[in-house]
Amino acid sequence: MRRFKLAPSRFKRAMSRLGAVALALALTTGFARTALAEEGAESRSFLELPRARQGYWLGVGLYGTSSRLIEEGRDRGNYGGWGYSVRIGQLLTEHFGLGLLYESASIKNGNDKGATGGLILEASYNLWRNLSAHTGLGVGYDYVSDKTALDTSLRGGAGSYFLLGTSYDFFPWHKRLTGGWAVTPTVDFRVMPDGNIHAFTLFAGIQVMRWSGLPNNMLFLPEE
C-alpha cells in the first residue's frame, strides 16, 4: 500500500490539527444544539403554515469540481473532475438547519490523478423562499499521484475542511402540503489549509432532495 510522504514532525502537526478540528466540531455541535433547540422549541410551540421545505432532509448530489492545489508552496494549477455528495439534516427552526455532509470527488491535471473530499458538520439558513446559504467545518482529505513518474507515491494529506455555499430548492412535483421531492442546484466552495497540499475547491452541480415535511399537529391549515 502506498503511503503519503509526511515527515514525523509534519505528521504530529497534522494529528494535532485533526484533534483541534474534532474539539471544534464537538463544541460547535454542543453550542448549536443548545441555542437552536431553545429557539426550535419556541418556534415549534406555534403552528406553522405548510411549506414544501420543512422537516428533515436527505439528498444525494452529482458535481463538477475545480480544485486549485498548492503543494509545499508550489502552485500545481487547476485540477478538474467529478464527484458526489450525501446530505442529511433537519430544520430546527423555520429558518435554521443543522446536518451532515459527506462528499468525494476525483481530480486530474495532466499525469496527476487523485481525489478530494470530506465529512462536514453543516449549518444552513433560509434567506428567501427556497434559497439557502450554508457553512460548515469538518475533516477532509486530498491526494494526487503521477503513475508515469519514477516515484508513484501518493502526495497529500488530511486536515481541517471548511465550507461556504448556497443552494435553491425547486419542487417540480410538489403535491403535498408539506415536504416532498426537490431538485436543488448547488454551488459550494471548500478550503483545506492543512497537509502537504493545500486545496481550494469549487463544487457545482445538482442534488435530489427528499423533505419529510411536518406532521399535521404542527401545521396551521388554511381555510379553503
Secondary structure elements and their pairing?
Layout: H1 8-44, E1 56-71, E2 74-91, E3 96-109, E4 112-128, E5 131-146, E6 155-168, E7 180-192, E8 197-211
Antiparallel strand pairs: 1-2, 1-8, 2-3, 3-4, 4-5, 5-6, 6-7, 7-8
Rg measurement, Å: 20 Å
Overall average residue pLDDT: 84
In terms of structural class, how would the helical and strand content be classed? alpha+beta
Helix amount: 10-25%
Q: Order of helices and strands, N to C?
A: HEEEEEEEE
| Oligomeric category | single chain
Uncertain parts: 1-8
Question: Biggest sheet, open or closed, and with what strands and sense?
Answer: 8 strands, antiparallel, barrel
- Morphology call: elongated
Within the CATH hierarchy, at the fold level, what is the topology? Porin
Note the total helix count: 1
CATH class: Mainly Beta
Straight-line N-to-C gap: 66 Å
User: How much of the residues is beta strand, in percent?
Assistant: over 45%
Number of strands: 8
Strand order of the largest sheet: 1-2-3-4-5-6-7-8
The name of the CATH architecture is Beta Barrel
Count of discrete domains: 1
Quick overview of this protein structure:
The protein has a single domain (8-45, 53-213), classed as Porin (Beta Barrel). It is built from one helix and eight strands.
